[in-house]
Amino acid sequence: LYKRALAIREKKQGPGHPLVANILNDLALLYLAQRRYKLPGPLYKRALAIHKKTRGPEHHDVATDFGNLALLYQLQRRYKEAETLFLRSLAIYEKRLGPNHPQIVRTLSNISRFYGAIKKTGKASAFMGRAFQMRAALARRGKRGAAAVRKSAEATRKRVARRRKESGPPPRTTSGPGGFCLREIFHTPSFSGNKGSRSIPATGRASRPSARRSMPMASTPRGWRI
Fold first, then answer.
1. CATH code matching the domain that covers 1-97, chosen among 3.30.420.270, 3.20.20.140, 1.25.40.10, 3.40.50.10610
2. What is the pTM of this model?
């Protein structure tokens, strides 16, 4: 499936597109999981060349490619090349992402394990110590950020409650017959003084003449009863 996806991407976007590099890295990772250590190298190198050309030589994607190649060289016991690529990857991450970033913590941990595997315990301890310090700093920063959010939310809640208390309860707007608001009707001026106009009573409806009219009594012939 990865090979089919790679062929489709190469045909659609071209062989030098960053999406092609992503599939190359995924395919190489699959080969690593299968312990086929001779196959990932060319794929990682091709992905590295694509990222250097499209992203620039100091992009964090290039640093990731260096780290992938370093891990592969470590498995292949090419320790000198692995050490060089690990340190280049770390330098790019520190330059691009800043001194305190989770990716730098992961890179420091990988370098520490690498030095531990080749019995350089002094360097392994130094890099692991840096990783622990940075992880603790990130944890403190996260706690401070969460505490600041909680403090801001509590201050907002108190401010809203204080304003509601100062302004008092909202006025009641009971609706009268016909759906009119009684508060508005009682303050509506009367127009009964104008000739030809009708006054608006408190019921909210204009007075209308009664629909009932007095009907004349029908006369009946003498002797009939109704």
1. 1.25.40.10
2. 0.60
